[in-house]
Each structure stands twice: as structure tokens, then as C-alpha cells.
Amino acid sequence: MIAKLFRTVFLVDLFQGLWVTFRNQDPKRIYTEQYPAERPKVGERYRGAPRLNINPDNGETLCISCNLCALACPENLIVVTSQRNEQTKRKELTTFTYDTSRCMFCGLCEDACPVDALELTQDFELASYTREGAIWDRQMLEEGPKPTQYKC
Amino acid sequence: MPEATFLDATELVINMGPQHPSTHGVLRVILKLDGEKVNGTECIIGYLHRGVEKIGENRTYQQFAPYVDRMDYVAAVSNGLGYCLAVEKLLNIEAPPRAQAVRVILTELNRIASHLLWLGTHALDIGAITPVFYCLREREEVLKIFENYCGARLTTHAFRIGGLQYETYDGFEEEVKKFCDWFIPKVDEYEELLTNNRIWVGRLKGVGILSAEECKEYGVTGPVLRAAGVAWDLRKAQPYSGYEQYDFDIPTAENGDTYDRYTVRMEEMRQSTRILRQAVDRIPSGPIIGKVPKVVKPPVGEAYVAIEAPKGELGYFIVSDNSTQPYRMRVRPPSFVNLQALDCMVRGGLVADVVAIIGTLDIVLGEVDR
């Protein structure tokens, strides 16, 4: 009873809470990331901007235009067109369109790709000034987005 | 005789929401007030309806998995687990033991993340600003584990039908263990801030009482039911994904008021870390995905699988007609069912408590409207 009165009169419960706040004042405990001055480190497996890989040796695309990514996509946002090369009797990729405005980055397309050509990368800055800018063609997919890097 | 003005009216009808910051989304509540007293409420939902169930009927089984993350978006991993278990039941397969253990770890981490977000926003509704910063700080660590594991923070799409897509990354076990050790003192810190605080106790004790009988009548599940004294947890009652191997308690309380729901959820976070410690220590080796056909075509039949999501019983009912797409997809979301009890809890109380009661139900409107 007396203890309860003491706690009530001297605001023990409120000071207890204030002490927690005080303990967390330490500047070493700052958790805020100073983006864009400080670039965040995203995970290695991060599912960000799509990329169509090219063979680094000869610059040719790795895509075999099998259309499996387009079939796996829940939103049907990938369009692959190809042409049959009469000399090698192989399908060759002509265009590859990827609509990032409808993409939900589920990763089903990269799972479906049999040759690791289509990949979701660590790039996460996908803003563009127009809606059309969010629809990526083959060139954009191979080069990747080039966001402005800010420094403070 | 003077003309009647609005001051003579005994009942005042006001709108709360859909843009009210304390309705946790786009819930619209029509309050019938007599002064400060609430005489009745009417919930209007559907502002966030996206037709997820119908989308499920137009996608293949694998393609629908990312959409379930978008129902209860603060507990996306639990949604994914429920869906995968339902399809696995239709296919009559089971995930390998390693996949089951990793699934348990990720869903328990997600339960902690969901409860942390609830605690922060609920305290913010009541007027305690501090906890939300600390809660989001701790939640960030969970999201980092998710990001390192599957490449996404919120809409994770972590599980696949039959197991997992991704193998655990190097240092996964250590990171989870480190999180457990680091997290328990943080829960004590929240308790220090709130549990004995006179404003917190004064605002929550005896507010929005829902007895065990009323809970059962409304079909309320999850921490709201356990706060009323019913020790009902699907992880114990109908163990799935290997939950029967882990030793944990079901926290309950007696009064069923808002304060009890707070204590139950705090204790649940501690129990989750207990499960995490056990699960991390014994992740079996082996494959992470079972034998799943490339084209998932379950035999004709139906399956209902319910799991204990952070908010209550989350059920998936799928009817298959032996095609690549479900014939019928039905989701039993915990938030939607729990929200029905709002009128019962609010009626007769004060208008200032409505905010506290909506907060304590821990609803996510993405799941209510689907």
C-alpha cells in the first residue's frame, strides 16, 4: 500500500519509461540510413531491377528465347520475340520487353530461366519520368538502370 | 415553440475513416454517438478490395503464390506458408524436414515482425510515441534476415509449393541466434516503457472487453481469443510443418480486455524466440524441395488448411478440378473475422476508446478486403 503510494506520488512508472528513452539517446545507436548520401547495402539475393545477361566474351545475349519466363510470369508482362536463323537452324532473340511498372518482383521468371539469362539484380532505383520509361526494352535490360549517384 | 436543431437530436452519427490515421488502413466506421458514449457502430469495408480470390482462379498454382503475400502484407511469410500447405495437401505431398524447419523459423520471425508493428502503431494510437521507433528498429533486423534469405523484405514469396526455392545463406543460423539473444532485452525494454505506465494502464484496462463466449460466437481467433482465457493455438491443436517438435507455451490471460491482449502478444513474442532457438539448433540436412511436378495439376478434390498466423486462424480452401488453375479459392482471413467483434467491444464505451479497440484487434485492411 505504502509502496504503491510512493510509486504514485513520485511518478516512478513514468521515470522508468523516461530512463529507457534516455538510455537510447546514445549517438552510437543511430539506425537511420542517410540515403541517398549513404548507399544502402541490399542483400545478395535482392530481387530488384531485371537484367538480361550477355556473354562477357563475345557480347552476345545468353537468352535462347525459349519463352519460359513469359509463361511463368503471373502478370504476363514479358514479351519475347525471336527469329529463326536459317543457317544455324536456331531461334535468335530479336526483342525482349519487360514492363517493370506491372512487375511485383516475385522472382518466378528468374526461377524459370534455364540458362540464367534473366536475373533480378540488386539495383533498386527504378523511377522514371514517364510511364513508358518503365517499360524496358532489350537494350535497357542489358545495360541496366543508371541512377544518379549523390554524394554529400 | 422553437424549431428543433441538431442539438436536440439524441443520436449523432459520425464517420470515422476511411482516411483516419488510427483505422490502420481504409476502414470506415460509422459511429452512432450519444455525447461521448458509443451506441453502435457499422463497419464499411471494401476500399482495398483487389479480388485476390478471383485472381487465384485465373492463375496457375505457382503463379498465385506471390499474390497471397499481398493480403496480410505485414505477415507475408505466414500467408505463403498457409497457401503452400493447402496446395501440398491437395497434391498429397509433404515438404522435406529441412524445408519444414526453415519454414518454422521464417514464420516465427514474421510473427515477431508483425507483433512489433502492431505494438508500435497501437502505442502510437494511445499516445505513446516512443515505442514505435524502437519497434521498427527491431523489425528492421527481421526484415534484413528476410532480405538476405529470399531477396525481398515485405512481400517475400519465400516458400514454394513442396518446399523452398532458396537454400539458407551462410551464417543464417548465427544471425537468427544473434537476433534471439538481442531481441529478448528489447521486449523487456518495451515492457518497461508501457506495462506499468499509468496512462497506458488507464487507457487499456477494462476497455473493449470480449469474453470467451463472445469470442467463440464471433469466431474470433488468435491473441484476441487467448486474451479471453481460451488456450487455443493451431500450432498446438493441429500441428503443421513440424510444430509438434517444439516446446512452447500458449500465453493466455483472463479478462479479455485491451490490456490483456497487449500482455498476450508480448508473451507471444518471447515464445516465438523460444521456438526460434529450438528450430535453429536442429535444422536437419537434406533436400529443400520435395518431388513436385513441373506443372502442378492436383487431383479432383478440395482442401482446407488453417495455420496460426500472427493475427489468428488463417485458412485456405482450394477446390481443384484437375486443371492447372484452382476451380475455387477461398481465404479465411483472421482480421476479417476478428473485425466483426468490433461492434460488440465498442458498444457502450467511450468514443476515445474506439481507436484503442481497433488498434488492439490488429487488423490489416489488405487482408480484410482481399
Write structural notes for this entry:
The complex is a heterodimer of chains A (152) and B (370). Chain A has a domain at 50-143: Alpha-Beta Plaits. In chain A, a hairpin with a 4-residue loop joins strand 2 and strand 3. Chain A is α+β, with helices and mostly antiparallel strands. Helices cover 24% and strands 17% of the residues of chain A. Chain A has helices at 2-9, 12-23, 68-72, 108-112, 138-143; strands at 50-52, 78-85, 90-99, 118-120, 135-136. In chain B, strand 7 (312-320) and strand 8 form a beta hairpin. The N and C termini of chain B lie far apart (53 Å). By secondary structure, chain B is of the alpha+beta class. Helices cover 48% and strands 13% of the residues of chain B. Chain B is globular. Chain B has a single domain, classed as Orthogonal Bundle (Cytochrome-c3 Hydrogenase, chain B). Chain B has helices spanning 52-57, 61-68, 76-91, 97-126, 130-150, 172-194, 198-204, 212-218, 223-227, 234-237, 258-281, 334-339, 342-346, 351-361, 365-369; strands at 12-16, 28-34, 37-44, 159-160, 163-164, 301-309, 312-320, 328-332. Chain B has 15 helices and eight strands. The chains are: A alpha+beta (152), B alpha+beta (370). The interface between A and B is medium-sized, with 26 and 31 residues.
Question: What is the structure about, briefly put?
Answer:
The complex is a heterodimer of chains A (152) and B (370). Chain A is an alpha+beta fold and 152 residues long.
Topology:
The complex is a heterodimer of chains A (152) and B (370).
Chain A: H1 2-9, H2 12-23, E1 50-52, H3 68-72, E2 78-85, E3 90-99, H4 108-112, E4 118-120, E5 135-136, H5 138-143
Chain B: E1 12-16, E2 28-34, E3 37-44, H1 52-57, H2 61-68, H3 76-91, H4 97-126, H5 130-150, E4 159-160, E5 163-164, H6 172-194, H7 198-204, H8 212-218, H9 223-227, H10 234-237, H11 258-281, E6 301-309, E7 312-320, E8 328-332, H12 334-339, H13 342-346, H14 351-361, H15 365-369
Antiparallel strand pairs in B: 1-2, 2-3, 4-5, 6-7, 7-8
